[in-house]
Amino acid sequence: MAYASNTLSHRPYGFVARLRAGMADAAEAWTRFRMYRETYDELMGLSDRELQDLGLSRASIKGVAHETVYGV
What we know:
- This protein is mainly alpha-helical.
- It has 3 helices and no strands.
- It has helices at 15-44, 48-54, 61-70.
- Helix 1 runs antiparallel to helix 3 (61-70).
- The radius of gyration is 21 Å and the shape is elongated.
- The two termini are 41 Å apart.
């Protein structure tokens, strides 16, 4: 059986609503990126001994910062 349906019926409609949603997504992405940079910079500022106490190495800082902020 074939029928027509509106797949966008559950979403806000209109250009302004889509623009606002896009701007909100961009703002969230920018906030997450700033959190990543802050985490990365703080970990890079630690001494090797402090990193060792945390169970980290310099090579793992990028991955740890990414996982902390983005969860992946």
